[in-house]
């Protein structure tokens, strides 16, 4: 097909930029991509070294391949928590009473992206690696609370989603007027309830000092985790709060125009 | 009598307002998908767990009782929000489909590719037919009472027959070392797990077995009764969690 002046002018047009309410979309997608690569990387590490060096915690190789990973995770968790939470707090909006409706709408979108990243981390911790723990304990007797799967699930995935949930909570508290005036109960439930799952690791591991196999995964010793995850249903309330406010703000913009 | 709301009250969004609302919908869809896979799967794995993991746990007494009873919880809670607030008749199906997606990914990559269990040994059960009935009934009746009684019962009663095409073949009898057992049991003996001995102690006990072929329908009807009670309980739990309150302090 021949190239016409019309085609040339079309091809030299500037690429369409994202609408104002989706400015943070690239960061959100990058976050998703980064987490996906990280979780798949951890799973591949397990595939490479769990059976080879993760069956007996008294072997020197266990210290090298697994406990070293555990120490690295602790450093990363501490850095990510202090970095993200510190940034969100220090860069807080101190003039929320002057916030324009459009900017507030944009921030609701960003909050939804934060919660979405949080639920993505909840997926890996609550779904994939959680059930994988059962698979591992069917073939390996636990001789330590730091098994090849626990090191990734309990001591990295759990704290990581807690940090990301905390980010969502802090973002709302420091950048959105309604969340700054009052403490949103559903957002608090949805973040602090699953946080209790991390705390339940203590109860679980204490129980497993008596009961070192995994004969019965659906056992009461695991129900602390279950109650914690019910609180994720609070996301329904966050959605209702967000939608109600977005409708108000959209009407306000429309009335002004 | 329900309030008569004139149709003219609802003005569809147009232009940028519509595009913005649609973009928000897509964000919520992604958020909800991972939320329900993560949360419902953890809840399910640690309460139904073993009955769903292993083919030789799928017995006549406990599997048809426990699975629907625990499986109706999140669907009821999510319906309480999606139907009541947004008129979306898909809460149950969304939850169950998310659960199935999560379990399939795990069974393939955590059981089969990590620890070499055959995929046939760890097939997840389905609750999709029951969830479809639950959503349809709520949409057609708009009644918590009717959905609790008939939807809850259908969710339980449909479980065993709709799973039979998947798992029936594993109940075929085989003779191994002069003993008769099922194909499912043979899987269990061939792929030794720590879960095996406790399984035998729990499942082989109980007088319901003496009822022979009636054990399964009895378990299913017991589950139907319990699901009818579990459904409204979790409806209200879902409603409570999805509150819109702001507190002065925590």
Automatic annotation (TrEMBL), chain A:
Spans through the membrane: 28-45, 65-90, 111-130, 150-171, 183-203, 223-243
Record-level Gene Ontology MF annotations: monooxygenase activity
Keyword tags: Membrane, Monooxygenase, Oxidoreductase, Transmembrane, Transmembrane helix
Pfam family, one: AmoC
InterPro entries recorded: NH3_CH4_mOase_C, NH3_CH4_mOase_C_sf
Stated name of the protein: Ammonia monooxygenase subunit C
Protein's organism: Methylomonas methanica
TrEMBL record, chain B:
Protein name per its UniProtKB record: Ammonia monooxygenase subunit A
Keyword Oxidoreductase: yes
NCBIfam families: AmoA_BACT
GO molecular function terms noted in the UniProt entry: monooxygenase activity
The keyword tRNA-binding is annotated on this UniProt entry: no
Coiled coil: none
Parts of the chain that traverse the membrane: 23-42, 62-83, 90-110, 116-134, 141-160, 218-237
Gene3D superfamilies xrefs: Ammonia/particulate methane monooxygenase, subunit A
UniProt keywords, alphabetically: Membrane, Monooxygenase, Oxidoreductase, Transmembrane, Transmembrane helix
Top-level taxonomy: Bacteria, Pseudomonadati, Pseudomonadota, Gammaproteobacteria, Methylococcales
Domain of life: Bacteria
């Amino acid at each position: 097909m021949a190239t016409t002046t019309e085609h040339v002018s079309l091809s030299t047009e500037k690429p369409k930029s994202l609408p104002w309410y989706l400015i943070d979309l690239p960061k959100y997608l990058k976050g998703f991509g980064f987490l996906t690569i990280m979780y798949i990387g951890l799973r591949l590490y397990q595939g490479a070294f769990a059976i080879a060096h993760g069956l007996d915690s008294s072997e020197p190789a266990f210290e090298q391949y697994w406990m070293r990973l555990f120490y690295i995770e602790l450093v990363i968790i501490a850095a990510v928590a202090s970095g993200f939470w510190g940034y969100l707090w220090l860069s807080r909006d101190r003039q929320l009473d002057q916030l324009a409706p459009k900017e507030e709408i944009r921030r609701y979108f960003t909050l939804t992206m934060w919660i979405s990243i949080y639920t993505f981390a909840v997926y890996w911790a609550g779904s994939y690696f959680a059930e994988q723990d059962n698979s591992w304990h069917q073939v390996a007797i636990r001789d330590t609370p730091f098994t090849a799967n626990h090191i990734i699930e309990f001591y990295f995935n759990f704290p990581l989603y807690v940090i990301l949930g905390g980010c969502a909570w802090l973002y709302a508290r420091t950048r959105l007027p309604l969340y700054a005036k009052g403490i949103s109960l559903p957002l608090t439930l949805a973040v602090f309830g699953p946080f209790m799952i991390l705390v339940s690791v203590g109860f679980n591991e204490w129980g497993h000092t008596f009961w070192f196999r995994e004969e019965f995964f659906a056992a009461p010793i695991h129900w602390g985790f279950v109650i914690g995850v019910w609180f994720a249903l609070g996301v329904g309330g966050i959605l209702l709060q967000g939608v109600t406010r977005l409708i108000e703000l959209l009407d306000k913009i429309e009335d002004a125009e | 009598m329900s309030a008569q709301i004139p149709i003219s009250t609802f003005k569809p969004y147009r232009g940028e307002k519509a595009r913005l609302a649609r973009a928000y919908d897509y964000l919520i869809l992604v958020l909800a998908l991972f939320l329900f896979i993560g949360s419902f799967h953890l809840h399910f794995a640690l309460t139904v767990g073993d009955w769903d993991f292993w083919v030789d746990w799928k017995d006549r007494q406990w599997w048809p009782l426990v699975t629907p009873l625990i499986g109706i919880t999140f669907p009821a809670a999510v319906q309480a929000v999606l139907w009541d607030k947004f008129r979306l008749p898909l809460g149950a199906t969304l939850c169950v489909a998310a659960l199935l997606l999560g379990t399939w990914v795990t069974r393939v990559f955590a059981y089969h590719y990590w620890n070499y269990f055959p995929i046939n040994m760890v097939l997840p059960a389905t609750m999709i037919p029951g969830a479809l009935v639950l959503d349809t009934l709520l949409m057609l009746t708009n009644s918590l009472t009717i959905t609790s009684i008939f939807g809850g019962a259908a969710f339980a009663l449909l479980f065993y027959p709709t799973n039979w095409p998947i798992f029936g073949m594993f109940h075929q009898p085989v003779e191994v070392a002069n003993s008769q057992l099922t194909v499912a049991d043979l899987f269990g003996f061939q792929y030794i797990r720590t879960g095996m001995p406790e399984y035998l102690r729990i499942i082989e006990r109980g007088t319901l077995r003496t009822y022979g072929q009636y054990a399964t329908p009895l378990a299913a009807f017991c589950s139907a009764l319990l699901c009818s009670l579990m459904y409204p309980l979790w409806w209200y739990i879902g409603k409570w969690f999805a509150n819109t309150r702001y507190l002065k302090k925590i």
